[in-house]
Amino acid sequence: MGAGQSKADTEEKVFYNETPIQFSQDVVNHLSDRSMSPDTSPERQSTLDAHVRARIQAELQHLRAEEESVQKEIELALERENIDREMSSVGGEPSDEVAGGDVKNSMTLMGDLEEIRTKVDRFQARRQLSDYPAVKESGEAVVLCYRQNPTAPLDCWREVREFNTSVAQAESARSRAKTHHHTCSMVHDVFHGRI
Questions:
Q1: Cβ(141)–Cβ(159) under 8 Å?
Q2: Alpha-carbon gap, residue 137 to 141, rounded angstroms
Q3: Is the pLDDT of residue 96 over 50?
Q4: pLDDT of residue 156
Q5: How is 101-132 classified by DSSP, letter by letter?
Q6: pLDDT of the residue at 183
């Protein structure tokens, strides 16, 4: 039932037009002008812009995902390295003397203390950001600019430059203060016979 009708014809059929087709000169001129014009129509430009924006956003998302992946890989590698370092310093060989193990553990402890001291210094520096209002203001200006220009972050170069300058000035001032504190601490230690 109907099986004969659903078979596809394999022969090509050609139809010939017996009446000539003519276009008015206005239609020909309009098509000619439109094909010669280098400008795109506003609708076409709008479509192109939307397509370009979509591709840029997709690429940004892809780059952010890659960056996050690389950061995770780095963190995992650092964790493995730290664990290996701790295991090698704690494990030691069975033939090591107890005193030798104590020295190794003391060195590890000193390294850990120095690392903690560095972290505390960084924490204090962040907490004391209020002592550097220029850094805070320029940082807020950068964030505001990035929010106002989410698709054109390069437009924020002035704000970034000002932020970098204010951070450099704050670090310089902090470095001078830290050097002064370190010198006073050494003089104190010498005076009390610790050095």
A1: yes
A2: 6
A3: no
A4: 84
A5: HHHHHHHHHHHHHHHHHHHHHHHHHHHGGGG-
A6: 58
Using the predicted structure, report yes or no on whether residue 103 has a pLDDT greater than 80. Answer: no
Q: To which H or E segment does residue 34 belong?
A: helix 25-36
Q: DSSP states of 1-22 as a string?
A: --TTTTSPP-S-------S---
d(CA 32, CA 30): 5
- Both tokens of 180, joined, read 């002064």
- Taking residues 77-105, what's their average pLDDT? 63
Rounded Cα distance between 13 and 184, Å, is 101
Specify the pLDDT at position 19: 78
- Which pair of structure tokens corresponds to residue 71? 């950061």
Residue 168: C-alpha distances to residues 86, 93, 174 (Å): 35, 47, 10
- Residues 110-145 have pLDDT tens digits of 777 788 888 777 776 666 666 778 888 888 898 898
Phi, psi of 15 (to 5 degrees): -115, 135
Amino acid identity at 167? V
Locate 157 and state its tokens.
């170069």
Looking at residue 41, what DSSP letter applies?
P
- Which tokens is 131 given? 């002592």
Report the 10 Å Cβ neighbour count for 105: 13
